[in-house]
Amino acid sequence: MLQDLCVANPAAGIKVNGFACKPDTNITAEDFFFAGLAKPGIVNSSVGSLVTGANVEKIPGLNTLGVSLGRIDYKPGGLNPPHTHPRATEIVFVLEGELDVGFITTANKLFSKSIKQGEIFVFPRGLVHFQKNNGDKPASVLSAFNSQLPGTQSLAMTLFAATPEVPDDVLTKAFQVGTKEVDKIKSRLAPKKS
Fold first, then answer.
1. Quick check: 5 pLDDT over 70?
2. Are residues 74 and 113 in the same domain?
3. Is 57 annotated as a binding residue?
4. Domain match, 90 and 184 both
5. By residue range, what is the domain housing residue 188?
6. Is the pLDDT confidence value at 191 over 80?
7. What are the backbone dihedrals phi and psi of residue 173, each rounded to the nearest 5 degrees, phi first?
8. 181 marked as binding residue
9. How far is 35 from 64, CA to CA, in rounded Å?
10. What residues does Mn(2+) bind to (predicted)?
11. pLDDT (tens digit per residue) in 84-130
12. pTM of the full structure
C-alpha cells in the first residue's frame, strides 16, 4: 500500500490487478458502506442457497484492501454446491442453524465437519469446498475472504454451462457417463432464455 485508500472507479475502464482509483475529491462515506448483509436473502435457487457478496463491486472502498465478506442463506436441505475461490481463503461463521461443511485437498482427501451457531470453519485458497444445511430450519453464515474480489468457480456450472461449451467427449470421458447424461445435466444448468 502506497496510499491510505484507493476507492474503486469501475467507470475508468482501467484495471491493473484491481480498479483504478477515484479522485480523492469524489470519495464519500458511502464508498465504504453496504447494508446488503443485514437480513436473510430470499432463497429461490434450485440448490436451496443464496450467496450475497460484499466485495469491491458492492463496496468500492474495499479496492486494494484485500478483504471482503459474504452472507450465505440456506433453506432446510439447501446446498452451496462444490466450488472454489481461486483468489482467496474463506472462513465462515455460522449465524444460525447447523451445516455440514468440507473441502478436498489436491491429494483428494476430504476434511469435513458439522458446524453450528457461533462456530467457524476455514476453506484454504483454491480448494474445492461445499456447505449443506442438513437441518429442518433455515441456516445462514457470514463468510470472510482475504481478497477484495475472491472469485467463485462452481464446478457444475464451469463444466456443464460454459460458453462456448466444453466438448461432450471431454465430459463423457471425464465423468465416465454417456452423452444423454451430459445433455441432461447441461439442460438443467443452462441459463434461462427470456
1. yes
2. yes
3. no
4. no
5. 161-194
6. no
7. -70, -45
8. no
9. 21
10. 83, 85, 90, 129
11. 999 999 999 999 999 999 999 999 999 999 999 999 999 999 999 99
12. 0.90
